[in-house]
Amino acid sequence: MKYLLPILIAASFSFAQWGDWNGGGGGGGGKSINDYKKISVSGREVYVYAPSNLADNSPLLMSFHGMDQDPNYQQSNTHWEAVADTAGFVVAYPKGATGYSTWDINGDQDTKWITQIIDQLANDYKIDKKRVYMSGFSMGGMLSYHAMGKIADKIAAFAPCSGYLMMGAGTAQRPVPIFHTHGTSDNVVGYDGLENNLKNYRDQFKCPSQAEVESNHPNSENRATLYTWGPCENGIYVKHLKLEGRQHSPSKADVSDIWNFVKGYDLDGPIGASKPESSASAPASSAEAAKSSSSGVTGPKSSDVATGSSSSRNNPWGNFGNRSSSSRDIWGTIPTVSSSSIMGVSSSSGIGGDIAAIAQNDPSLLAVSVYRSSDNGIMVSNAQGKTITVFNSLGHVVRTTRGTAGVQKVYTGAKGVYIVKVGTRTFKTAL
User: Fold this and answer.
1) pTM (2 decimals)?
2) Would you place residue 385 in the very low, low, confident or very high pLDDT band (cuts 50, 70, 90)?
């Protein structure tokens, strides 16, 4: 109950800001909540929209309304179905409980219910449970932040709108991608309180302190500025869309930006970003092929490489098929190194990228070294200011951090082969 009093006080001012509610229509055109299917999950209402040509293993996006509102209001202002029809995913608008249509942002009543919604829609629509996304307006946004500390193992990315935990940020279960939209003229959940909340999560996720700023970001309703922090731990990003003059209202003007952000993640992290950069797509010269062959570095064995129509998502290193001996190695142009040093026992040999080009573009990278410490950790030295990303043998990002001037331990984990990318240089090591 500790959050309820400030919410109730805020609600007394809210309806002046929610002026475009029309009580049930299509929000000026398009589909209405009547085009959604009303289902019951544990006795509570959820409105669901699925495109007619929905494929199996499609994503799910859940949109949560604000206090004293309902799915009709949320849908008539956001129109998520318009994006779903094009992008091919399921939309769900759950309905809050109690007489004030509130959400439980203290306990686990609603977060447990959310997992039940996911399970039921997985059964009804065969959604991909690794690509479930959560967005919410006002108290629905607060619920999104609350869920980060309760069910982050069920939600791949979060997009709170005009709502944050007003009594202070919580602790997330893991670094999660966040896309927060908020209007500067919001006098219900004040814009001034957002930065401390968002900074708390950025600090938890070890994000860079400085944001990349895109002024005049396209938005059909407001002048917008997009702030981006990242890469943070595990390769995730935190973004904030600042909307000049926007009051306390959800809007269909923001949903495409939200979708374009969240769709890049599943529960394992960034989709399509699991493979270290290489120049594998360029044709190899015979000299380069010979160099790769003599080095003893051949990348995954043929049994580990996807063939035929297998997707690069199932095989993070891409679909290379059966490679001949003249094919370019997937690690790129590789300096000659011994097989023992490749396995990373006190090795600092870079294996990805053309060393001559690296020296020309960024000579400081030549001083970088990567090796295994005596206590079985991956160490990096002389990487000040560089982005360091560690990939496991499956190609998944297991750590992203910022380099320091001296020696730093960047990862300690299970035995196996790891790829460490420092700036544009790539290293292979093992624990």
Assistant:
1) 0.62
2) confident
